[in-house]
Amino acid sequence: MKTLQAYRFALDLSPRQERAVLAHAGAARVAHNWALARVKAVMSQRAAERTYGVPDELLSPPISWSLPSLRKAWSAAKDEVAPWVGGVLEGGVQHRSRRPREGAEELV
After folding, report:
1. pTM for the full predicted model
2. How many degrees, rounded to 5, is the angle at CA 41 between CA 36 and CA 42?
3. What are phi and psi of 89, to 5 degrees?
4. Which pLDDT does position 82 carry in this prediction?
């Protein structure tokens, strides 16, 4: 039998740090929901067109679900969709930093 162990940490944030953490989480959620809605809308549109008998070559163009393409689309749309996000969130669709320490300086 495999045993799993977990740890729970409590952060002792100042009010300023708490606002920054909550703003980041909210902005990341906005980006995620936007990307999900975009992909679902295109899928639904293509499915509806198929029910009307539209041939495959005339269907609405598909979109890529890859992270790079969603990040590129988010970068192009974020100023219109959520102008307040720009100062809060770098990356958007994938907000986790590849380098864990990057961005931590803002919390100190």
Report:
1. 0.68
2. 105
3. -130, 125
4. 87
